[in-house]
Amino acid sequence: MTTMLEVARRAGVSKATVSRVLSGNGYTSQETRDRVFKAIDESGYRPNLVARQLATKSTQTLGLVVTNTLYHGVYFGELLSHAARMTEARGRQLILADGKHSAEEERQAIQYLLDSRCDGVIIYPRFLGVEEMDEIIEQHPQPIMVLNRRLPRHHHHCVYSDQRVAAATVVDKLVEMGHREIAFIAGSSDSPTGIERLAGYRDALARHGLPQQDALIAPGKWTPACGAAAAATLLARGVSFTALVASNDDMAIGAIKQLHASGVSVPQQVSVVGFDDIALAPYVIPSLASVKMPVTEMIQETISRLITMVEEGGVQTLPSFSGTLIRRDSLKRLLA
Q1: Closest C-alpha among 214, 192, 193, 191 to residue 202
Q2: Where does the chain show beta strands of DSSP type E?
Q3: 73, 185, 214, 301 — which has fewest CB within 10 A?
Q4: 119-136 burial string, b = 16+ CB within 10 Å, else e?
Q5: DSSP string covering 56-114
Q6: Percent of the chain scored above 70 by pLDDT?
Q7: Is the pLDDT at 251 greater than 90, yes or no?
Q8: How far apart are the first and last CA of the chain?
Q9: β-pair partners for 275
Q10: Count of C-beta atoms within a 10 Å radius of residue 21
């Protein structure tokens, strides 16, 4: 097995110089680094990662906790893709831990990453409450960032978009376009995002003095099939509506299919709006109006802030991110 001393001899430098090149600490010229890396390649040397981590007090890794109930969606694919690319660009490795199906399993996944000595951890929570996450941040020395949840005690440890305001803004736009009977397909009842979007819908109706009818709200669980079933439920109730807001694009697409199958024209009879602006949204017929959530910007800010915490310590609190309504063919103004 090749040793660091053999690499040093092959490169014509000291063992201490090889150690500096591998750890990134201290100055070495580009020419010296090139010689060391060439010697490593030629000799097949593999550094002892545990010893290196003990010496540098860094694993060059960031952890990400996401529950597997979110894996199937387009949103998760975008989240993971951006997180992996941005972590790589910062010279670090991303380690994914599964939060599974409960708050306790999310907690175990977080602890696994902390025990693995990740330099910092990102949590995309599904089951843990904000008070629990505040406590986790206070109990551990490693920096922890929480994505898509607002923390009352640790504002600088979270990056989030205001889902409640985003949903209210959609209803505001529909009212501005002449709609008064607006139906809503909710997300999963145990989803913080789903709860906030439903609350925003209710907020806007109240602000505009419109009646809140339970018959205009149908349950959903984020999939196209759930969206189709919710649309069928709304139609079966016989309640009138000229606009339909779905808590995500998958359910909006399922709802459009069901409305069409039931002889209801979109957008001539019912306008439909979704959330997340998935890649498929512009290509369905009619093209789907959707609220674009700033996933890329949020991930970039999360990783940037986490690495700043790891390397420098403190970081300033920034405001929340906002969603943007992308208007497409499924959205139509009512004629006066």
Answers
A1: 214
A2: 61-66, 93-98, 120-124, 144-147, 158-159, 182-185, 217-218, 243-246, 271-275, 289-292, 324-326
A3: 214
A4: bbbbbbbbbbebeebbeb
A5: HT---EEEEEE-GGGTTSHHHHHHHHHHHHHHHHTT-EEEEEE-TTSHHHHHHHHHHHH
A6: 89
A7: yes
A8: 82
A9: 291
A10: 21
Quick check: 316 and 156 in contact, CB under 8 A? yes
User: 211 preceded by cis ω (within 30°)?
Assistant: no
Same domain, 177 and 272: yes
121 vs 92: CA distance, rounded Å: 12
- Look at residue 51 in the predicted model and tell me its pLDDT: 47
The answer as to whether 103 is a domain residue is yes
Domain of 180 in residue numbering reads as 163-292
One domain for residues 242 and 196: yes
Task: Assess whether 167 and 282 both reside in one domain.
Answer: yes
Selected residue with higher pLDDT from 201 and 127: 201
Burial 170-179 (b: 16+ CB within 10 A, else e): bbbbbbeeeb
Give the strand order in the sheet containing 243-246. 217-218, 182-185, 243-246, 271-275, 289-292, 324-326
Q: Is residue 101 part of a domain?
A: yes
Contact at 8 Å (CB) between 132 and 112? no
In whole angstroms, what is the distance from residue 267 CA to residue 260 CA? Answer: 10
The dihedral built from the CA positions of residue 161, 207, 181 and 217, taken in this order, carries a sign that is positive
pLDDT at 109: 92
Q: How many domains does the chain have?
A: 3
Quick one: 214 exposed, middle or buried, by C-beta within 10 A (0-12, 13-18, 19+)?
Answer: exposed
